[in-house]
Design brief:
Two copies of one chain form a homodimer.
Chain A (H helix, E strand, L loop, with lengths): L5 E7 L2 E6 L6 H8 L3 H6 L7 H13 L3 H4 L16 H20 L3 E2 L5 E3 H4 L21 E3 L4 H10 L5 E10 L13 E10 L6 H16 L5 E7 H11 L6 H9 L6 H11 L4 H11 L2 E2 L1 H9 L7 H19 L6 E4 L12 E9 L9 E11 L3 H5 L8 E7 H14 L11 E4 L6 H13 L4 E2 L8 H11 L3 E4 L2 H6 L1 E6 L5 E5 L3 H11 L1
Parallel strand pairs in A: 3-6, 8-10, 14-15, 14-16
Antiparallel strand pairs in A: 1-2, 4-5, 6-7, 7-13, 8-11, 9-10, 11-12, 12-13, 16-17, 17-18
Amino acid sequence: MGGPGLCCLASSGDRPVLYASGQSILIARLVVHRARDTTRLASIERSHISHFFCQVAEAALATQLKPHQEKSNFIIKTPKGTRDLSPEQMVVREKILDMVVSCFKRHGAKELDTPAFELKEMLTEKYGEDSGLVYDLKDQGGELLSLRYDLTVPFARYLAMNKVKKMKRYHVGKVWRRESPTIAQGRYREFCQCDFDIAGQFDPMIPDAECLKIMCEILSGLQLGDFLIKVNDRRILDGIFAVCGVPESKFHAICSSVDKLDKMSWKDVRHEMVAKKGLAAEVADRIWDYVQCHGGVSLVQQMFQDPRLSQNKQALEGLGDLKLLFEYLTLFGIAEKISFDLSLARGLDYYTGVIYEAVLLQTPAHAEEEPLNVGSVAAGGRYDGLVGMFDPKGHNVPCVGLSIGVERIFSIVEQRMKTFGEKIRTTETQVFVATPQKNFLQERLKLIAELWDAGIKAELMYKNNPKLLTQLHYCENTGIPLVVIIGEQELKEGVIKLRSVANREEVAITRENLVAEIQKRLSES
Amino acid sequence: MGGPGLCCLASSGDRPVLYASGQSILIARLVVHRARDTTRLASIERSHISHFFCQVAEAALATQLKPHQEKSNFIIKTPKGTRDLSPEQMVVREKILDMVVSCFKRHGAKELDTPAFELKEMLTEKYGEDSGLVYDLKDQGGELLSLRYDLTVPFARYLAMNKVKKMKRYHVGKVWRRESPTIAQGRYREFCQCDFDIAGQFDPMIPDAECLKIMCEILSGLQLGDFLIKVNDRRILDGIFAVCGVPESKFHAICSSVDKLDKMSWKDVRHEMVAKKGLAAEVADRIWDYVQCHGGVSLVQQMFQDPRLSQNKQALEGLGDLKLLFEYLTLFGIAEKISFDLSLARGLDYYTGVIYEAVLLQTPAHAEEEPLNVGSVAAGGRYDGLVGMFDPKGHNVPCVGLSIGVERIFSIVEQRMKTFGEKIRTTETQVFVATPQKNFLQERLKLIAELWDAGIKAELMYKNNPKLLTQLHYCENTGIPLVVIIGEQELKEGVIKLRSVANREEVAITRENLVAEIQKRLSES
């Protein structure tokens, strides 16, 4: 204690707390603030803190620091793993979201919204190994709450709570996960998800095929380059585990390990299975024989012939559904985008049937190399048991859905725009109201109110006497196409000058024709 | 303990859990939870819990209850003061938000987004008496975080953090406040705010007048009936307090009391001032003389003449600005919507100049009565000191802005739609793909993919053999205008039947003309 890292003493709430340098200089401010109540300072348990620091706090109290001096080491930032979105970023984001939402609407989905937090109870036992990543709210009296971790569990809770048996809905919203943020890859602790789900008892694989069609439409529409959708089925995975000799109690744990194959080598995954999860080495190797397989519908046929797997009822069910799925995908014209991949496992606990994940492919530098996987941008699957976990009587509603990971897509689109040097307009202003003369604020205000009231997007300078050049430069810099200019001459003649920023042409227009002329110009452009 | 509040015992997943009504039972849950490991059960301090519960817990372990039995008293709900928005509500909400955002864009604002939570430190000392209503996140290791309480403080933090000196931005987002929810009035603990703010050093009252213009445009545009915007200035209030003899240390507390005048009688507010806040009774009565006043620009003139107030420098500054403001409001054509109201105080600590609040007026039952105030729907003001609270050197950026309280507006619009029995379409589907025959799924899937790929919003039934009548009823119930029908006859002839749901007319169209014909029909309607 008291070394170079330690800076000051603070009382947070009623508990005395010590903070170290870097992050928490700002807490010194709290000390000084609270120290105004000297009786409170005295009540801090001195056994917990160095006497030296009490002296610092008291000294600070005595000297009456000015606000800005107190804050000389105040660090302003957003919380770890979160970020603000600047106007430029918001324009990109809105474009992507518009495109995604219009696809969801094209497929007949309704919109739903749920609170940012749920009763903690609602989220427990839904996320398997990831449960520790849920953000909890502080117990401030009342209910125990957690921030939502995805949009799927709140959807299932909504269905059970309202006894809805059938629904096609979309939901765009933020979710929160206490992961180690790897921001370079577009991974954040707060991020936006776009979910589409179909709930209800229907004939097999028709809604599932539509989900894959939607993923293809969105990824093609966003022009993110080549992509591939990996498909598998939880029942096939369970079948593989069973025929390879994995004890049933270890299915979830081994499934988790398989899920890591896209980030870790087989050697490391095998080590985890054997050394950490206690699987026999020969069992692990048998799993490896299967999970290396990937291909099209012919691989489904091949697995039907597999002497071991064809003996497993669950696996056969999964394979039967995949066969049907490929038939529908062919009718939709997207079968060549889909790869049956036995290594696809998906981390979340709640999937029960078909699962899928879309990855972007990067054209390799050399023709003979395989395309590079640059990460997953959309995923989903069937979860027929989740609604029943909320229903008092365990009644189930079968569901299938998908989630678009827009943050990663933002990163890619942003990067592309930077590379091509695209300029983004962050406002939609159509007309600027300018004057070359002093003391023309009143006329400008009257004029701009007319434009606003006619629904025209307009701006002016918040100055009594702005320079004309400044006003025109502002239009050029922000991409405003038209300028309306009013001066003494115009006022006397009852006209307004309308200037096109692009070609700098000016024409005089009578005041009463101005709105109509502007609307005509805007509709032409 | 162990009385009627105890309902059942459950094993959810592999962990035994006890559920019951009331809060004490939560403790029991924890106990049982730990009881999984019997050695651990033994280690529980039995002095803290009833022996009865331990017995229940042990019994539960032994009996292996089935999932649905476990949950018979599981209560599924959203957290207190929050709600889901159903598809019908989302349609209303999106309409209102579109209208608000298009007004913000008409005034040249850029969009910004900030995280749902901030470092706790960023929110302290910003909200005065309301600080206790901030939601904190649990300390899970790492930073101390709080959910944002409004969009204004994150905006000021953004400006300071990025050293932005000038910006006109809007932000639509949720905020969270631990208030007692009064849901009937549209007050929730989670609610959506629509904020517009202008930051920067400009000539006086021009941006302020634009904020009031925006409030008028939005409230008129939403057709919420008659409304009034009350305006005051923090400097005038401080001036009143000073000339009435309030000690400066009590300004904030007395301002808070004045703020309650729209909900409490003067008698009660006076009691709070005198009995609770230690103000001399004659000082309170002098304040009352002022805060009863309300009127138009003539009241500003009258206050300039006030023998006491005209001696106060701060009050004179505020009155001078209000005079200028009214001049601009007259040019904007909205002066008659504005009332200078000396009782308007606004709770939040950060306001420094002009403040305003829009209230809806209800036409009274009797002509001689005054219109009824049915609550505030928008508010805002000038906060020139807030950015400086974040800046390490205390550099300020003057700001003025407004916030639209959309939840209350939702309630009003929803109520109105119910009254008028308006039916809301929750999907935008344009075409339904139907068949009168069995075994036509393949043809339907091929056809609908064609429509989707042409950008047409289309649906079909997820059944192999749906009944034609069911398909047509679905279109009538959900408002889908067109049906495309394919059967054996049509397939043979290479045509499709196109049916208008409204008049039930059907025409045959060749397959290659279908998309063009649908697009023509949709553009005409």
